[in-house]
Amino acid sequence: LFAGESLFVKGVVAMSGLPDADRMEVCFAGRSNVGKSSLINALTGTKGLARASNTPGRTQEINFFTQGPELYLVDLPGYGYANAPLAVVEKWQKLLKRYLSGRQTLRRAFVLIDSRHGVKDVDEEIMSLLDSSAVTFQCVMTKADKVKLKDRERVIEQVRTALARHPAAYPEIVLTSSEKGDGIATLRSIICGLE
Ligand code: GDP
């Protein structure tokens, strides 16, 4: 699946804009600055594919990337923007809910958690939304290179405890560093295993 090239397809702002559900897809969610763009770039081996900095104007978009001809990687930006207007947040949440509960080809969501910070309230919210949408999700710890082993273990324990409360959570946690490349091959093979 990861042999082919990766391209940005489109940013979707309404259900009518979704590309045809003609291939498997996985989506990525996480607070802004968690390292989501870096992870998507690392997974696809395409520098600059996902924007390395999200601009507020694009927070309501669901961004689709192809990875070869048989896989979509879907970037779900847009949570943890405390200063976005309420109407914008509500419109976004509605689209997100409809996408998550209606997308037949969506095989798994990856919820990105910063290895330094653990699960925050907004992460809990997205996890609950995934529960209610019946989308299996798996936690990916980002920026693993930034924490010492001892601190990392403490954070992983906190994540494990949080996951235990969510019926849609897949128990295995993936540790990654987009900077060092750790865990990227593991994550690719997890995605390939979803076929
Ligand atoms: P996004 O907002 O979730 O898309 O986050 P970005 O991918 O833009 O990353 C936010 C910041 O964290 C940037 O300065 C990245 O260079 C940095 N970053 C992302 N991944 C890693 C990582 O694995 N290790 C380190 N040390 N920094 C990272």
From TrEMBL:
Reported cofactor(s): Mg(2+)
InterPro entries: G_ENGB_dom, GTP-bd, GTP-bd_ribosome_bio_YsxC, P-loop_NTPase
EngB-type G domain residues: 22-195
NCBIfam families: GTPase_YsxC (TIGR03598)
Keywords: Cell cycle, Cell division, GTP-binding, Magnesium, Metal-binding, Nucleotide-binding, Septation
Full protein name: Probable GTP-binding protein EngB
Role played: Necessary for normal cell division and for the maintenance of normal septation.
Family statement: Belongs to the TRAFAC class TrmE-Era-EngA-EngB-Septin-like GTPase superfamily. EngB GTPase family.
Encoding gene per record: yihA
Coiled coil (residue ranges): none
A Pfam entry, by short name: MMR_HSR1
